[in-house]
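Running this now, will post back.
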Amino acid sequence: MKFFDVGFLHPTNTKNLYRLSFLIIVLYTISLFYNLHLAPLYSEEPRRALVALEMLLNNNFVVTTILNQTFYDHPPLWNIVLAGSIKLFGYNTFALRFPSALSLLLTGILSFYMGRKYISTRFGILSAFYYLVCADLYFYFSVTAEIDIFYSLLVTLSIFSIFHFYEQKRFYRLFGAAYFFITLAFLTKGFASFAFIIITLGSYLLYKKDLKRLFSWPHIFCALLSMAAVYFYFYIYGSYENLGRYISEMWGLTQQRTLLSDRFEGIIKHLFMFPLNFLGVIFPSTLFLLFIWKKEQIQNIKARPYLVFLVIAFIANFLVYWVSPGARIRYTYMFFPMVVTVLSYPLFLQLKETNWKHKAYHTLFKAIMAIAALACLVIPFVGYFSILPHLKYTMPLFGLLLILTLIFHHKTIGYTKHLFVITFIVLCRLVFDHVALPMKALTSSGAAHKSYAEDIYKIIGEDQTPLYVFTQENLRTHIQTPFKLYETASYLEMSRKSIVMNTDQCELPGYYIFNKQNLEGRKPLYEFTISKVDLALVKID
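Update: finished.
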């Protein structure tokens, strides 16, 4: 017991705990990017991919397109970030997913910085780690090319800037930073972004009895700069495309998520389920509710101005989503670091206690660790995983690592015990990367689209003859992309570095993808099926 309780890993051995924390963050970073490229594009990833690829191929970073047709959706910043990643890492799925994973890591670093500055270094480490391993973020959205984690980083930077610079009484920096990041958020996801700064500034300054600050020159000046940036963006966009339709479509996306967008029964269901879903996806921090239901813990939170600010900012902003049936949990990712930080504080103050709450929390994780270790040892013998023959060599090693983590977790106490909970979750993500992502590459429905693109590319080769999709349907959303071809098209554009173009004419020479019903005697070079629609590739000279 000496090694664990009074020696190397005792909670009083600050230097070694910081070394352990550093090793965990290194392992965590590896887990974010290991096998990130393997799973086929799915859900909304192909849409993001097409827009970013066509930005590069058209050399136009203002107007977004899909299949070379104007796509009236969000502003272009996230697509520009994806395009930059493609330029850095090449035309591949890793490049598309890298910014989302990096955004999660950067948000965790921001959470650590704020926790360290306004509470303590140890608290900053613990709360940041628990944010970084939130289930929905860590095991799902950080593995995608989706917009939400990057957008949440920008909004979090804006909100945290308000408290950080208010404490320093540097008001030009406060409003400058808050409006700078929220303007970037607007250029990422549109009009709704400004609600965050309006609600957060209004509620916090009301709490501080300082509403007059809203009418100060620093605020007016920075707000006008933000408005000027938005106007300049729209002016530039209007020189390329129909500005009125673009603004109308963007506003329509915002309105769809409001209270007016659903019937009464939908609103009631949303009011009940939304907060429960929110608590579920921040697991394991959900369990910290065990430690907060005491009057003295509420008082401890009230004694910390930083935590009070986070509570105010969260409640004021979350209410908007709570009463908006169109809202989804992924729209609330900017609240995760706030909620996890607040929930972590009562736990942090009780780390030296050994009451039933701690025993229940750690007993649950001991059981999960044991099950996970057993699963790693069993997986090589399950027929479903036989398509990955290397697992019979690697999974016992993962099982051994999880058993060692269980032993260290059992033997250590207090703060150190939680670091091994984090270590366990990180190892689970590595197992997920090692098993689930290769399995998706071979068995998911998205794998077929990648295979179609590879087959078509083999036929076309390096030929730069244009590739068209023939349809007379109007493209409005990615769901209306002809024959749901956006998944296959994204792979084709990555491999050919040439745009797959939508057309309602077939007079120009080139390769065409037709619905087989419209072939009119043309000889197909390749046939495939998407969503029960039989398609064919033909060449017209």
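Confidence is low (pLDDT under 50) at residues 1-6. More later if anyone needs it.
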